[in-house]
Design goal:
Layout: E1 2-7, H1 12-23, E2 27-32, E3 51-54, H2 59-71, E4 76-77, H3 80-86, H4 89-98, E5 106-109, H5 112-122, E6 126-129, E7 140-142, H6 145-157, E8 166-170, E9 177-184, E10 187-195, E11 210-213, H7 218-231, E12 235-243, E13 247-254, H8 260-263, H9 270-283
Parallel strand pairs: 1-2, 1-3, 3-4
Antiparallel strand pairs: 5-8, 6-7, 6-8, 9-10, 9-12, 10-11, 12-13
Bound molecules: adenosine-5'-diphosphate and magnesium ion.
Length: 284
């Protein structure tokens, strides 16, 4: 049995996953997804590996490569379905709401004019996000109409199919931190607070945020595992905010979770636990 870790940019995470798999004696290789070609000839493909851990930075590359590998009958962590939901904030918000998991109230508009009408209706401040993205890119607090108009102008100038879809979220009144929970199946591997850097509202580690170990309370465990289950499960990063009025709310689920910041404070070997999950899920 050979485990292939698919990547398109080698980060701390992929290297650590590889090292831990090798340490466990698993026949493992790092495969650059950019070098793979797949055809519809189901028996004519020469793909390296028997099981796949999909770790591409590019959401769409990872998503469609997963679809091809599943077509060929290979098990991939995470599945196409989970990656599709978690890679798209609109889809995640809808599933969380449908599953009655506490999450920020979110609105969607499908062109600039209806976005402007929406802002008049809901008022300021609010948060705007791109449908697909990570590292806090394009996640902006919008405090007044002037900023909202600049966002519209910018989107109209840099028009893509996604720029016409507006994802607007209530601003959560929270401390300057959130909680990143790394989940494998039905277990929270570790939970860390992420504190935002100076002059930065977003708590992403990629924006200079720093981490500290967070206790896994029953309340946290319940909401995080319910949220993971709602999107289909796997190896996930469930991000939770502490709303001063409502308590815990899930704002995002990452299907390609980074854990460099969490590793610095975690008491458990995160990569090792992830590899164990991939192997265990094969037995099921
Ligand atoms: N509704 C919100 N209210 C307050 N802060 C938010 C809200 N949404 C996001 N944030 C902050 O912005 C960060 C990035 O948002 P997120 O939705 O996780 O996007 P990304 O996928 O880019 O990480 C969050 O980790 C949090 O610190
Ligand atoms: Mg996030």
């Amino acid at each position: 049995m050979e485990l292939s870790i698919l990547y398109d940019k080698l980060r701390f995470e992929e290297k650590t996953l590889y090292d831990n798999a090798i340490k466990k004696g698993i026949n493992t290789r790092l495969v650059d997804a950019k070098t793979i070609s797949i055809s519809t000839d189901i028996n004519g493909n020469d793909v390296l590996g028997d099981i796949f851990l999909q770790r591409c930075l590019s959401h769409f590359r990872g998503l469609y490569l997963t679809s091809c590998l599943e077509f060929l009958g290979y098990p991939v962590t995470n599945t196409y379905q989970v990656t599709e939901i978690c890679g798209n904030k609109l889809r995640t918000s809808l599933i969380l709401a449908k599953s009655k998991i506490a999450s920020p109230k979110t609105y969607f508009s499908f062109n600039s004019e209806s976005f402007k009408s929406l802002t008049e209706k809901i008022g300021f401040p609010f948060v705007i996000k791109p449908l697909v993205g990570s590292w806090g890119r394009g996640v902006f607090p919008v405090k007044d109409g002037e900023v909202a108009n600049m966002i519209v102008e910018n989107r109209e100038e840099n028009d893509t199919p996604f720029s016409r879809i507006y994802y607007v979220q209530e601003m959560i009144d929270r401390p300057p931190r959130d909680i990143r929970c790394i989940v494998a199946g039905e277990q929270i591997i570790t939970a860390v607070y992420r504190y935002s850097a100076n002059n930065e509202w977003r708590t992403n580690v990629s924006r200079g945020g720093h981490t500290a170990l967070a206790p896994i309370t029953n309340e946290l465990e319940d909401i995080v595992l319910d949220a993971s289950k709602a999107v289909g499960g796997g190896i996930l990063g469930v991000d939770v905010m502490e709303d001063k009025n409502r308590g815990l709310v899930v704002h995002e689920i990452n299907s390609n979770v980074e854990f460099r910041g969490a590793s610095q404070v975690a008491q458990i070997n995160i990569a090792s636990a992830m590899i164990d999950y991939v192997l265990d899920s094969l037995k099921k």
